[in-house]
Amino acid sequence: MSTVAELFATDSLLTGEEREIRDTVAAFTERHIRPNIAQWFEAGEFPVREIAPELGKLGVLGMHLEGYGCAGLPATSYGLACQELEAADSGLRSLVSVQGSLAMTAVHRFGSEEQKQQWLPELATGRKLGCFGLTEPDFGSDPGGMRTRARRDGGDWVLNGSKMWITNGSVADIAVVWARAETDGKNVVRGFLVPTDTPGFTAREMKGKLSLRASITAELDIDEVRLPADAVLPGASGLSGPLSCLTEARFGIIFGALGAARDCLSTTIEYSRSRAVFEKPLAAYQLTQAKLADMALELGKGQLLALHLGRLKDRGELTPEQVSAGKLNSSREAIAIARECRTILGANGITLDYPVLRHANNLESVLTYEGTAEVHQLVLGKALTDVSAFR
Predict the structure, then answer these.
(1) In this protein, which residues make up the domain named Acyl-CoA dehydrogenase/oxidase N-terminal (predicted)?
(2) CA-CA distance, 357 to 372, in Å (whole number)?
(3) Which of 212, 254, 295, 378 has the greatest count of CB atoms below 10 A from its CB?
(4) In whole numbers, what is the pLDDT of the chain averaged over residues?
């Protein structure tokens, strides 16, 4: 019996170090996540404070960043780690993405040396947690319309506004908050480092989710939050700052979503071989084999694309449009695989005894966050036609 990796010989495309990193992360999820993830998902909770330091010891928090206690590993290695994290649960990969590719990347790329020294080593170990406040209740795909404002008051900044769908928002120690800042008669998007114990900052955990249930999501209220002048990220001015961080996070999704799809498919293949229907294994039916073959084909193609994009990123050649292509393909094909797998498992597929519908529910969020499928279609459309359809 061949696996998808064997059919496509993808291991032959990896270095020994890359395989070791992948296998180490997989072993971590086997010990720390898989035995409990169904229970956490059902309860709608995740022990972030307990798991984050373990992720820090594993070295995956900001693992693609250089210095300040970060591992400084290649992009492809980070992608392979994301694949294993999301094979366990999308919420786990989201935690790592938000910590490393959003909060830590913002500080690493745009922060002052003092800000980097203060926050990055603590975030890399998981002793401190970060969140990334960009999305607002009325502005998701169009962050340029944000209403959160920052004004100068003497030597201080004063922030007002709200953010929504913020992963780790209610457990974070530091929030990277993006706001329109009024300076020199201009209104420019700037990033601010907001300690979450600052007066006027409130985070409320969002309940009632049917997706990413094993993940902490919050709404942030920012009411006359007063910050010193050095709270601003000096290297970021305009939307290009937060959008470049989103591109980093999307890269992890390219690999991560395929991890969820792989877990669904491997579970389903094993199930089909042991499940008897009309006195023979479900795997013996042509319809079942056709479904499995089609899913394996899309998963294999997605993994080959992900590896190609990883190599481009390691060479410094990856473009945002290529990231959009990868994110669109991986998220769209992963959710299609999860849904098809559910049909093979039948009624068993809707239970938490199997990971398939848990992955499918999570992938509903992955399909739309960090840019909806439609937004990435339009990004590719503009690249192909040189005509923007956004406005």
Answers:
(1) 16-126
(2) 21
(3) 254
(4) 94
Q: What global pTM score does this model have? A: 0.93
**Residue 192, beta-bridge partner list:** 177, 232
CATH number assigned to the domain comprising residue 76: 1.10.540.10
Q: Assess whether 182 carries a catalytic annotation.
A: no
- Residue 317, judged by CB atoms within 10 A of its CB (0-12, 13-18, 19+), counts as exposed
Is residue 83 within 8 Å of 302, Cβ to Cβ? no
Half-sphere exposure in the Cβ direction for 306 (13 Å, CA) = 33
Could you tell me how far CA 257 lies from the centroid of its own chain? 9
pLDDT of residue 371: 86
- What residue type is 283 in one-letter code? A
Please name the residues in contact with 79: beta carbons below 8 A apart, sequence gap of 6 or more. Answer: 251, 252, 254, 255, 306, 310
* 391 within domain boundaries: no
- pLDDT tens profile 191-242: 999 999 999 999 999 999 999 999 999 999 999 999 999 999 999 888 888 9
Give the count of domains, the chain. 3
**Tokens standing for residue 363:** 């992938």
Q: Which residues of the chain have pLDDT under 70?
A: 140
Q: Which of 114, 279, 370, 374 is catalytic?
A: 370
Indicate if 252 and 352 belong to the same structural domain: yes
What pLDDT is attached to residue 183? 73
Mark whether 232 and 260 lie in a shared domain. Answer: no
| The domain boundary residue, chosen from 238, 257, 282 | 238
CB 174 within 8 A of CB 196: yes
Q: Are 254 and 307 in contact (CB under 8 A)?
A: no
Domain boundary among 95, 129, 163: 129
